[in-house]
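User: Hi! I'm working on a homework problem where we have to compare a predicted structure to a textbook description. Could you give me the structure for the chain below?
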Amino acid sequence: MSSKSIVVDFISQQSLAVVGVSSTGKKFSNRVYKDLKAKGYNVYPVNPKADEIDGNKCYKSIEELPQSVDSLLILLPPKQTEKVVKEAVAAGIKRIWMQQGAETKEAIDYCRENNVKVIHNECILMFVEPVTFPHNFHRYIWKLIGKEPK
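Assistant: Happy to help. Predicted structure tokens:
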């Protein structure tokens, strides 16, 4: 379970990169990207196969990101997460959120070994205000069963 202080720290950052935004626009990652932009975040999409996402420049790799980005949200299959985490650490990124289903034990351990604040097994849309349905319901259930970060 991730700590509440790390979650609060991550969502308080106004600039972040999202790795795994789909060029087709049909994946959950696109919903997250659009929601974060709509909530006022400066979001940098990362996808090696796209030049732009929703009319915004898309970065081919973490290395191409502006220096002002030190938070990264990963929405990828677990097989790809560890490689991205290593690239992020090499680029100096200090906060990594592995969206539910993207995490691996190796990637989490690598973050911790390299003093990166890591969040995993959490959905970012449960925490970025205003939280809307179904994410507010999901957060409510997690609170009831004791899975909400403390």
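For your comparison, note the following. The first helix runs from residue 4 to 12. The helical segments are 4-12, 28-38, 78-90, 105-113, 135-144. Good luck with the assignment!
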